[in-house]
Structure formats: C-alpha cells, structure tokens
Amino acid sequence: MSIGVCYFPEHWPSDNWERDVAQMADAGLEYVRMAEFSWGRVEPERGEFDFEWLDEAVELVGEYGMEAVLCTPTATPPKWLVDEHPDILQADEDGTLREWGSRRFTCFNSETYRKETRRIVRKFVDRYADNPHVAGWQTDNEFGCHETVRCYCDDCAVAFRDWLREKYDDIADLNESWGNTFWSQQYDSFAAVDPPRPSPAERHPSRLLDYYRFANDSVVEYNRIHADLIREANDDWFVTHNFMGDFASLDAYSLAPDLDFLGWDSYPTGFVQDRRQGDATVPELRAGDPDEVSMNHDIYRGAKQKPFWVLEQQPGDVNWPPYAPQPGEGAMRLWAHHAVAHGADAVCYFRWRRCREGQEQYHAGLRKADGSADRGYHDAAQTAEELFDLDPVDAPVAILHDYENLWATEIQPHSPDWDYWSHLRSYYAAARRHGVQADVVHPETDLSGYEAVVAPALHLVDEDLAGNLTEYVESGGHLLLGPRTGLKDPYNKLHNAPAPGPLADLAGATVDQHESLPSQVPTELQYRGESFEYRTWAEWLVPEDAESLGEFTSGTAAGNSAVTTTERGDGQVTLCGVWPEADLADALVSDVLDAAGVARTHRLPDSVRVAERDGYSWVTNFGPADVQISAPEDASFLVGSAEIGGYDVAVVEAGAHELGVSIADD
C-alpha cells in the first residue's frame, strides 16, 4: 500500500527540486507522477528536444528511494503544432473549433494527431526504456474531460461512416436497425450519414446511441496507440490511465483490456457540488459523500477485477467546483484510507505544491506555493506511516453498471429528474449502509462468484444477456432488478414484448404501465406490509408466476404491484418497479442479502461506512460527530481506537459484520 504525489518540476526553478524530492521521501511517499502536460517544455520547437530537466527529476526521485510514474504528454500539445496542423482541433456540435489555450482540444480521429502522438510518445518511452527509476506510465490525462469524448469535425464524420460500414451489413440494415422510417429519416448510403449536429427537434435516439459508441471506440483506439508503444519499449512497465468520477461519456470497461489496472481522480468535496443530485450538506462539503466516492472506487476496481490506483487525490481546497470549503481536519487522511479499504493499492495526492501560475492557482497542494507544509502534507505523511500490505477486496455482491444503458436513458430520460448515477447509487448505498463490499461491474462479467447481483437500470437487454442472467439465477444466485430494465434492445428500440423484454420469463412478471412523476405527486407503496416512499419513476407490474411483495398505495397506480419475487432453479429474482427512496432501497437490498446469506452490519449512521479487506475492517467517519465502535473482545485496532472523532478512521482486525457503529452522542 503506497502513498504518492503528482509533481510538476517544470513549474519551479531547478534549485528547488532536490529539496522538494527530499521532503517527499521524508513524508514516506513512494511514487512521484510527472510530465503529463510537458510536451511544450520537452519539445519547444519541432524536432528540438529538451529532456535534461526531466532526466534530472527522475534521477532525484530514484536517488531518494522512490519511483517515478511518467505520463504521455498528449493532453496539451504545443502551439506550434496547432499552427502547423489546425486540422487536429476538435469541433463542437455546431462546428465551432475548440481552440488551443487550455487542454483536451484535439480530435481522437485526426490522422495527423495520431501520427504526432506516435512520434512524441515514442520519444518519451524510448528515452526512459532502460531507466530503473520509472515504474510505469499513465496514458495521456483524463480522456474526455471538459466534454471532449465526442467531436463533430469532418475527420469524425468520415470515421463514423467507416464505423457504421463495419457494424452494419448495408444501409438497409442500418435503416431497419435504427428504425428510420420515423420522420422519414432513411439514408440511401453510408456516405449520407453525418454526425448528429444541432437540429430543431430532438435527434434520433438510435443514431445518437451509435454515435456515442463510435466516439467511445475512438478513444479506445487512441489509448491503444499509447499502451502499445509503452509496452514495446519496456514490457515490465505498468500501463494505466486516470479516469474521473461519475463520468458519463467514456466507457471505462472498454479501455480496461489495454491497461494493467485502472486509476481515477478523486475530489470528494467537488463531486458533491457538481455531479450529484441535491444540495450538499455541511459535512459533505467538508468530506464528501462516502457512497459517491466509494462507488467510483468500486467501478475502477470492478473493471479489471483487481486493485486500482487513485492517481489524483484531493489534497485540500480545489479550484473548479462552485465553492471551495476547506476540508474537515483529517479528511485528506480519511480519503486515502477509504480508498485503500475499497481496493486501492496506491493513492497519489494532486499536487505536491500549489502552482503560482495558470488556471490552477486556486488548487491546493501538499505544500503551499512558498514550499511550506500545507494541511494535506501532514495527513499524507501520517497515512504513509499507517498503511500496510493487503490482499485484494473479495466482494460478495455485484452491482451491474453499463455506460450504454446510461447513454440510452440520458438520450431519452423521460423525466428531468432522471439521473443514472443517482439511481444506481440508491441500491449501491443500501449495500454500503450495511457494511457490504460490492464490485461495480459490466453486465457481461462472469457473475458466478457473487452471492447476490443487483441490476438497477438494465435498460438495453438482448437474449444473450438474458441467458447469462438466467444461468446465474438457476445456479443459485440472487438477482435484484430495478426499473427501466429490459425496455429496449441494443439498438435503442422498444422490444416487441412488454418490459422486462427478454427477462420477463426469468422475472415472472411484466410491466403494464410506466410513469415518471414530479416531486409534488405522492409516491407511496407498501412493501411486505410496511409503508415506503419512492421517487421519479414507477412501473405497474403484472405478476405471472411471481409473488407480489409490494403494491402502490397512492395515485393512479394504487392497487397495482410494485415489487415481485420468484424462484428460478436454485436462485431467486426480485423485480422492483420503482426508484426507491433510501428506506425502501434498504429494505429491498437487505432482504436480498439475507436470502443470499451475505453477512451484514445493522444499518450504519449516514456519515459512517465500514469496509472489509483481507480480514481487516475500516470504519470511516465522514461526519463531524464522534463515533463509537463495538468490536469482538479479541479484535485489535491497528489504526485508531473504539472511539474516533470527526473525519477520522479506525482499522480493526475483524469482519465488518462483527462490528457495531453508532454516533457517540446517541
């Protein structure tokens, strides 16, 4: 278990570097990530290279007993390259070019830029192929940030047509698959198909979904250029990439085969402000939402079924959310422990030192701009002392997550309140409120090792997926299906049969009606005789050979089934037709966990989570109040004690289900 940092030696005079690196080593840091935005510094003019400064920085890192993680620098090409080849620029939907002057403004499908990428990446990796201080590489930086996965330039138009020719037998096949008789949207050739640029009314949902797939595949191809060149230079290096939290437009699972492990960038106090429904509470503004952060940990662990890295960890206040409150005392340490508990093998803080220039001057570092220690430095140093080596997380539950389902429901949300991430997290958080680890995985993952599987919005379903889930259940698995499941086929068209379409036989029930509801409409139901509330989405279920466990008690739906269950082979399927509020999600998920024999805690306080890894349990307190832990008499605390303060953490050698946790004042 390692702590690291992101460093930009090119931002500082070279006589600062040894002092900085020595302080990193003193803090117990093991990895130093560098060079992600350095193209203009390394190649100030075409063909004129200056690697000496980076050579010196890498050598210093090695001299002080640490390892360098280098990054390919292609997220920020220099101005001279754009002046030579303006065709590399991305275009917005309306054709406006994204100009040089920030980052991520180049087109993934530009053959010119792909050629330039090969040239500069090869220069970098060949330079350090035999350097013993370089542990591995990060490809590029945050693919798709600032809404740049999808480009609409002429290069993308040509590439999209080629992509469609590969996918469909002929243009008639495309017209039939998309359903282009609607509004006379038929094409007479692939050459007639353009990227989905602005139009007066909404655009065809099948066309949009395929364009999203195409744009994602373009990133996969571009990332593979980097990965192949890195491995060609030194196949002992690891290759990773830094993905982002709740990031919708890039399918992390599709890049995973070309990476050794996945990394991501964690900024808890920003995420609760700019990518989550509802207003952040005061504790969340100080430490974030533990379930929002950990669900992303579990996505990037689940994508490869192995430990991940946090390649950027928030070090203090940050520059980009609407507000930048100072994190709670100890929060920077809390976040690192929380990541390790969910399967991280390394946590790298971003950044070492607050920058004095450019767009990120208001982004904290572990050290202040003058080089003195900031609050995060002490948290990082303490965490480095406390961590120890661990085996990977062994999760008994899988949450099915799929970007294509996200895109399809985003294209036609059918409600301004629909949000795929929030809906998914309703079920995920219910498992986490009971101390249960969950892998968040793609639906095509082998599910045979999981006791329970939760599929909150499995919107696009074909016969193959239905067959896999049927085999899982009949072999003894417990499956919980949520609303909007099986409504459409993979082309984003409604099935001929009622939802859940190909899953209807497995679920033993079908959907008669669906409705989306604003907040002022009463949304109540009974589940196992108790009253609960739901939100946003409701489906009226018709049990065939399933048992009704819940029915609507308000509105036009009153009297119709809302939740059903049935046994199939040695397993069980529960179908929930609503987006559950927290109490209902808790009841549904708890019942499935109990039926599957998954050990769990009692419901935890909202601000506290327990996560088990390799026989140890982390109790993480994301709130300001003291927390009391009850543990078996023979359990030993490796970090903290039975009472921990606000924004604090304890690590105890015991199973999560053996612990009791309460707010001390209660």
In short:
The chain has 666 residues and is of the alpha/beta class.
Q: Mind explaining what this structure looks like?
A:
The chain is of the alpha/beta class and 666 residues long. The chain has three domains: 35-260, TIM Barrel (Alpha-Beta Barrel); 397-596, 3-Layer(aba) Sandwich (Rossmann fold), CATH 3.40.50.880; 608-663, Golgi alpha-mannosidase II (Immunoglobulin-like), CATH 2.60.40.1180. It contains 19 helices and 27 strands. Helix 5 packs parallel to helix 8. The chain starts with a strand and ends with a strand. The mean pLDDT is 97.
* Number of H- or I-type helical stretches: 19
Beta content: 15-25%
Helicity level: 25-40%
Radius of gyration computed on alpha carbons: 26 Å
Domain module tally: 3
Overall pLDDT, averaged? Answer: 97
Termini gap: 35 Å
Give me the secondary-structure category: alpha/beta
Q: Determine and state the CATH class of the largest domain.
A: Alpha Beta
Question: How many E-type strands?
Answer: 27
Low-confidence stretches: none
Shape descriptor reads globular
CATH superfamily of the largest domain: Glycosidases
